[in-house]
Amino acid sequence: MSQRFVSHAQAASQFLTDEARTDWHDETLWFVRQKRDKAAHALPEWEALRELASGIKDHALSELSTYLTQFEQNALANGIQVHWAATAAEHNQIVLHIIRQQTGPAPPRVVKSKSMLTEECHLNEFLTKQGVEVVDTDLGERIVQLRQEPPSHIVLPAIHLKKADVSATFQQHLGTEAGNEDPQYLTEAARHHLREKFVSASIAITGVNFAIAETGGFVVCTNEGNADLGVHLADVHIACLGIEKVIPRQEHLGVFLRLLARSATGQPITTYSSHFVRPRAGQVIHVILVDNGRSTQLGRPEFRNSLKCIRCGACFNTCPVYRRSGGHSYHNAVAGPIGSILAPNLDMRRNADLPFASTLCGSCTNVCPVKINIHEQLWHWRQTLTAEGLAPPAKTVAMKGMAWVLGHPTVYRLSGRIGRWVMQHVPVLVNNRLNPWYKGRDMPSPPAQSFGEWYDKNRSRV
Amino acid sequence: MMRVALFVPCYVDQFYPAVAIATLGLLEQLGCQVVVPRNQTCCGQPMANSGFARAAASCDQNFRQNFGEFDHIVCPSGSCVLHVREHNPLLTGQIWELCEFLTDVLQVRALPHRSARPLRIGIHQSCHGQRGLRLSSMSERNEPYFSKMETLLRLVDGINITTPARPDECCGFGGTFCVTQEALSVKMGKDRLAQHQANQVDYIVGGDMSCLMHLEGILRRQQSPIQVRHVAQLLVDHAL
Question: Do A385 and B51 count as a contact with CB atoms less than 8 A apart?
Fold first, then answer.
């Protein structure tokens, strides 16, 4: 995948070089945002639902260890095998161990339905290196998998691709007709291809949307039914579960199911909400509870409530920056605004640019179905990252200099006069290629006098 | 007579004195005694939003020295007001964005004798004013429509208010974002302008000159005839 590190700003300017495609990307995602608005505004109790969901999640996080233990006990009692993974590496090892145990020397055949946690853990790369073929069965995921790309959106993994791109990919990998971009034809081809994989699979991996402490069961939401098809045909079901996904009671589920699909795509509910409680005869279910930095985030007061996230993607669709820079510009499994507050927790140095990939417009916070204060956390991450010394040195100098000027009224007034004089008399000093403002915008025309100077001349000072 | 202090954002002081003069005139026309503390500079937001809130302590202190004695501080910028309210620990008294001060404190219900030549305007809500200070409802939430700026502009004869296709999309200014993510910032601005241009507006009117300075920069580059105006410039009685 990415060999050389490219910052969000660099990737965004690259993305923007094809303006027509940027517009298409922006409009496609804005369309999803509008569908969300219609669905959300049709429910008079929408804001109350958000408040309730936020409260349930706050409570669950405040008693996380209790609910996780309760979930484990009830899952074990239901005959589910439970594993705990502190890190992504541990998670991957556990998955590999289960696969090896199950299949012995025969080549394992694994199908996987969409799971952002396995993306976060880079499970596919790990298993491939171990000689295990994993087939992603969500259509969008399969498309990006064939192209050896990461998903660009947590709900719509191939949203950055056009029909023509999918046609070319399928032609190369599935042998479809060159130039045939008919969606019906292409999905039919994917369907045949995936059916074969489903029928021959011995192991199915899924993510988990909600784990219910009270019952020890869990729920997986899909629109394509691929999680069910995989799980029902395979002997072994491995469910990968981030520890923040636990909710206390079954009755809470309705709150989240009503919010999730409406926020994600504007549907009242996902086509499939699959409940898994106990293994059927002859089947084995493994649940892997994964921490991978979540406990650390739980311990950061300003950032803990990012763990309320239910992965609906509404903050992506509403984000004016995401829509115009694409998911890959965030160089993290989870992109968009929520990714920008989750990623620094995993690796501050590598993701120090992401909290700055925002205008702090606050739209994300207000579409969020569980009321995560995303834009405020972006602001707090900025403070934390600079305190850790992760700001570019030039920026640190500039900001400290600016703070000094603005903290001294006389210096401020003098600098203003000099600045305006230069802009009037030597405009080339500001109107040049080194000034990023000037590249796409004219500078404001400097007035002869500031308001302060006008006031001194025209009004008496107190 | 209500005594208020006028806080003029640094970039308005330097680049848009006419906006500060209009704000001063408007407040006086509405019966306020307006004090302009001489040594005011900046709210500190440029540093804080860049991750250097610690370095902005000098601004917090200077703000306190200039405005500490006032119960009411009025400022023609939603963004600066939001910053001071949320992040200046030394704030005493209440700081108001101009429109909310007019609608909520002075409770202005009429603006006699104001009329403009027939004008088509598009309102540009700044995100910090709209979502941060709740100066208007927002499309993200399921809530009844309201807009403090629009309520005031409707008191002026001759103004025809149009609504852009995406009523509250960010213009892409974003403080230092406008230079650190220059390409994205300009693209967002162009898209925002296209929605107003589709409505064939004469003016784009807002409560934050920072957004408008960015949009104006693109308009001038495009050689567009559209002008930007601060809401105070439309509400002030120019005859007085």
Answer: yes
At A461 the pLDDT is 63
CB-closest option in A318, A436, A443 to B140: A318
**What is the value of ipTM here, to two decimals?**
0.96
Estimate the crossing angle of helix A163-174 against helix A183-200, to 10 degrees: 40
Which of B198, B107, B188 lies closest to B148 in space, CA to CA?
B107
**The CATH number of domain A43-292, selected from 3.40.50.720, 3.40.50.150, 3.30.200.20, 3.40.50.10420:** 3.40.50.10420
Residue ranges in A78-213 assigned as alpha helix (H): 88-103, 116-120, 123-129, 139-146, 163-174, 183-200
What residues form DSSP beta bridges with A199? none
Q: Rounded to whole angstroms, how far apart are CA atoms A199 and A65?
A: 39
d(CA A160, CA A400) in angstroms, rounded, equals 40
CA dihedral A328, B173, A263, A205 (to 10 degrees): 20
Which of A309-335 are b and which e, b meaning 16 or more Cβ less than 10 Å from the residue's Cβ? bbbbbbbbbbbbbbbbbbbbbbbbbbb
Distance from CA of B139 to the nearest CA of A (A): 8
For the cut 90, the answer to whether the pLDDT of residue B1 exceeds it is: no
Is residue A115 classed as helix, strand or coil in its secondary structure?
coil
Give the model's pLDDT for residue A2: 45
Specify the pLDDT at position A278: 97
How far is Cα A35 from Cα A316, in angstroms, rounded to an integer?
A: 14
CB contact under 8 A, B58 and A13: no
User: What is the per-residue pLDDT across A194-218, written as a single tens digit (0 to 9) for each?
Assistant: 999 999 999 999 999 999 999 999 9
What does the domain layout of chain A look like in residue ranges?
Answer: 43-292, 394-458
